[in-house]
Write a structure and sequence with these properties.
The chain has about 350 residues and is mainly β. The protein has two domains: about 80 residues, SH3 type barrels (Roll); about 220 residues, monomeric porin ompg (Porin), CATH 2.40.160.40. Helices cover about 10% and strands about 55% of the residues. The protein is built from two helices and 17 strands. The strands form two sheets. Strands 6-7-8-9-10-11-12-13-14-15-16-17 form a twelve-stranded antiparallel β-barrel. A five-stranded antiparallel β-sheet has the order 4-3-2-1-5, covered by helices on one side. The longest helix is centred in the N-terminal third of the chain and has 21 residues. The protein is rod-shaped.
Length: about 350
């Protein structure tokens, strides 16, 4: 419904002075009207028409060419915008305005913290750093054992061992040595054993399971008249088993045996085969084993092998007790030397770097 309202006035003609309204009453009515109008103006919206009429209520919509006003006396009234001079919207109460603002306000998105740049870890290098890394990054163990008797039997024996490994991104270097010294103080020849074995092996990864290697082994045993043996070699290795507890590798390749000894020195090519094993039974008990077999290529009846097995029980993080079994066999020894040298030793072991 669209309409315009014009206020209507009525004049009152007082014929009888008794019916006249007191000026005080008129003043009170005027003040009350002004007060009521002020209150009404503050709590409602006002639409002023072009003809001068004013409508109060609540403006609930302004769509296109119409304005909808909700009033207490006529309900919803729709007014054509062309008849409207102005629209005054009453200010909201502070509490209501604050509540409406909170309801309408959308939570500001929390700023997304930029991820801190990941620290770039330098890949481990085998020959990098101070002094080419020769004295850093190693992990392994060293062992020593000593026996001494006196009285009817007067003997002394000492054994030592060392095995250390340094690992790079794609390569690994392993060095190892073992010595055995034995003296019988009742015999005419007091030193019955004075032997040293050792070497180094460099591995280069070719795939997840395969690696190439070059090696160098040496040996000396004075009582057996072996002054020095030098064997450079190389070949291919394969990781048969590789996990957190067990590492089993097999090796095949070849080498060149140069031997200085009593009698004629020798130079012979040799085929090489062997394996290495590391196994951790639990946090304190570990096993290491190595086996190398050398076959003379020019004489199939001449061969030799080296076997070492070591069991370690940790007492503390860095100190343990070790048991070692070793065997050195040469089916064509020099002179009157025996073919086989077997030994069993026990003693203290010191771990450095990570546990092995």
């Amino acid at each position: 419904m669209i309409f315009a309202c014009r206020p209507r006035t009525r004049s009152i003609k007082l014929k009888d002075p008794k019916t006249m309204i007191s000026p005080k009453i008129i003043a009170a009515l005027v003040l009350f009207s002004l007060f009521a109008a002020e209150i009404h103006a503050t709590v409602g919206d006002e639409v002023k028409l072009k003809n001068g009429d004013r409508l109060t209520g609540k403006v609930i919509s302004r769509e296109g060419e119409t304005i909808t006003l909700e009033t207490d006396y006529a309900g919803k009234v729709t007014i054509d915008a062309k008849f409207v001079d102005s629209v005054t919207v009453a200010e909201e109460k502070p509490a209501e305005a604050e509540t409406a603002a909170k309801a309408d306000a959308k939570p500001e998105p929390k700023p997304v913290a930029e991820p801190e740049p990941a620290e770039l870890k330098e890949e481990p290098r085998l020959f990098g750093g101070e002094m080419y890394g020769l004295f850093t990054g190693w992990q392994g163990n060293a062992s020593v054992g000593f026996n001494f008797t006196t009285g009817n039997s007067r003997t002394s024996q000492m054994t030592t061992g060392l095995r250390a490994t340094k690992t790079g991104t794609k390569d690994k270097l392993t060095v190892y040595s073992r010595s055995l010294w034995n003296s019988n103080r009742n015999a005419s020849a007091s030193t019955t054993q004075n032997a040293v074995w050792g070497g180094a092996r460099y591995d280069r990864r070719l795939s997840d399971r395969t690696f190439g290697f070059v090696s160098y082994d040496f040996e000396r045993d004075r009582p057996r008249k072996l002054y020095f043996r030098s064997v450079p070699g190389g070949g291919i290795g394969h990781h048969l088993v590789k996990n957190d507890r067990t590492e089993l590798d097999v090796l095949v390749g070849g080498g060149w045996n140069r031997t200085w000894q009593v009698g004629p020195n020798t130079d012979t090519p040799e085929a090489l085969a062997g394996n290495t094993l590391k196994h951790r039974f639990n946090g304190k008990l570990r096993l290491q084993q190595a086996f190398s077999f050398y076959q003379n290529v020019t004489d199939r009846n001449e061969f030799r092998f080296i076997f070492d097995s070591n069991m370690t029980v940790d007492i503390t993080k860095n100190i343990g007790w070790q048991f070692t079994v070793g065997n050195r066999y040469n089916n064509d020894p020099t002179g009157t030397s025996k073919r086989n040298d077997f030994f069993f030793t026990t003693g203290m072991r010191w771990n450095f770097g990570k546990k092995n």
